[in-house]
Design brief:
By secondary structure, the protein is mostly beta strands. It has one domain: YVTN repeat-like/Quinoprotein amine dehydrogenase (Methylamine Dehydrogenase, Chain H). It is about 10% helix and about 45% strand. The chain has a 6-stranded mixed sheet with strand order 1-4-30-29-28-27, with no helix packed on it. Strands 14, 15, 16, 17 and 18 form a 5-stranded antiparallel sheet that branches. Strands 5-3-2-31 form a 4-stranded antiparallel sheet. Strand 15 and strand 16 form a beta hairpin. The two termini are about 25 Å apart.
Length: about 450
């Protein structure tokens, strides 16, 4: 029989009260550490993106709901964020981040009148998310639709980025010929802001132009989108993923049929955000900016980064402590999974270097949302292996294009799997053993979908 969870705050109080009273006869009060958790658990926050105009667009807003990790693993539990959840402020799909222990949710609203406003919430279970600290707007720095993530520095800092571009033309018009304009290059000006997540304040902001090589720019290449700033292990460099676009220098029209260059990353000093350089992989080609989910993670002294739109299928690339790509590290998803055209939609490793990855590939059928059916795999950064997780009941309407979050608790990773507009479940994988647990049922709404666990 399914159980529907409505009020975890009261339940948590009752459990805590009962446990403290049960222990009071056996333990002296002065030996109790008030900061020690009553039970070995953490909150798991589930997010759903409501349909706007079309199934799977996520433009109707974001609702979040928190359960304990024990209940997240319980298939007799049923939760419905769309009916009972907390509305995360955002005109479209909210951009969510969580503290490492799951006790805090960070949100920056996306688009609309409230776009670019940062808020922080204490997770108290169910639909109870209590705002803490002050709201901060970063829209004047990076616009009302910012691309941002939380740096892995102990929940201290967030970073948002943007890029603006302008085609530069040498106007050589003469009275007899008005067609002598010569394309020079396309400038790309980036902006980077860092946000104090603890004190809810702006830490730093820098904006400047980041060029490519003279040859690349003469051929019409430019940085058209940036995202997913990631802090290196030393804490002195920030890596920013980049997407390249191209124009035809002869016409200055967008060029869609061109050579895909080696994957690139912008490297800046941290915390100053200055002295930008661009590094290039000779292993992977395509973009490194990702989309909604964090695209790069520090592990064992290096940063591992997914790429997208690679002609050979997505790679996981490696940037070493020297702040250069390690081109001896060759981890191709096509080879590992035995597919063609693998495209990494979202991924997250645990501390052991093993993680969960959402992907699609050539031949993925388009479902209700008009996007390709997606799948999950267990990946191992050390062994460079990837194995499809077969325990998931895949369906043509299960797509993770907007997927954002995986909740990591030790070696376990929590994630959501549900088709657009259909019920699904929370799943938990022990990355060390590969054992998959089917957890709580997720009740969906028409045209809506789940975008992850935090």
């Amino acid at each position: 029989m399914k159980q529907t969870i409505l009020n975890y705050k009261a339940l948590a109080f009752v459990l805590a009260f009962g446990l403290l009273n049960a222990c009071s006869d056996d333990v002296n009060d002065d030996t109790i550490d008030p900061e020690t958790p009553v039970e070995d658990s953490r909150w798991i926050t589930i997010a759903g993106a409501k349909m706007g105009d079309e199934p799977g667009d996520g433009n109707g807003g974001t609702l979040i709901y928190a359960v304990t990790s024990e209940d997240a693993k319980d298939p007799t539990i049923s939760i419905n964020p769309f009916e009972n959840g907390f509305v995360a402020p955002s005109n479209r799909t909210a951009r969510l981040q969580a503290s490492e222990d799951g006790s805090t949710i960070f949100n920056i609203s996306y688009a609309g009148d409230t776009g670019g406003i940062y808020t922080k919430y204490t997770v108290e279970g169910g639909q109870t998310f209590t705002q803490t600290g002050t709201e901060v707007s970063i829209s004047e720095y990076v616009g009302t639709a910012p691309r941002w993530i939380k740096l892995f520095d102990g929940d201290q800092t967030g970073s948002a980025v943007y890029v603006s571009t302008e085609h530069q033309i040498d106007d050589n018009d003469t009275p007899d010929d008005a067609t002598d304009d010569t394309y020079l290059r396309t400038s790309a000006t980036i902006g980077i802001v860092t946000l104090d997540l603890v004190n809810s304040s702006i830490k730093n902001f820098q904006s400047y132009e980041v060029p490519l090589s003279d040859e690349e720019e003469a051929n019409g290449y430019y940085i058209s989108r940036i995202d997913m700033p990631t802090l290196n292990a030393a804490g002195d460099k920030l890596y920013i993923g980049a997407r390249l676009s191209k124009v035809d220098p002869a016409t200055v029209e967008s060029d869609s049929d061109y050579e895909i260059l080696g994957s690139k990353t912008i490297v800046v000093d941290y915390p100053s955000l200055l002295n930008a350089t661009v590094i290039t992989s000779s292993v992977g080609h395509g973009n490194t900016n990702g989309y909604r989910s964090i695209n790069a993670f520090e592990y064992n002294g290096s940063v591992y980064q997914a790429n997208q739109s690679d002609p050979e299928g997505s790679y996981i690339l490696k940037i070493d402590a020297d702040n250069q790509y390690d081109d001896s590290y060759d981890f191709n998803l096509d080879d590992a999974l035995g597919v063609t055209g693998a495209y990494i939609l979202a991924w997250r490793p645990a501390a052991n270097g093993k993680g969960v990855l959402a992907y699609r590939h050539d031949g993925s059928q388009e479902g209700l949302a008009g996007r390709g059916e997606s799948f999950f795999a267990l990946v191992d950064l050390n062994a460079k292996t990837a194995t499809k997780i077969e325990e998931i009941p895949y369906d043509v309407d299960m797509e993770m294009f907007q997927y954002q979050g995986f909740a990591v608790d030790g070696n376990e990773i929590y994630f959501t799997a549900a088709s657009v507009g259909q019920n699904g479940n929370i799943y938990v994988i022990d990355t060390e053993t590969g054992v998959v647990t089917k957890g709580a049922e997720l009740e969906n709404a028409e045209g809506s979908h789940f975008i992850g666990a935090w």
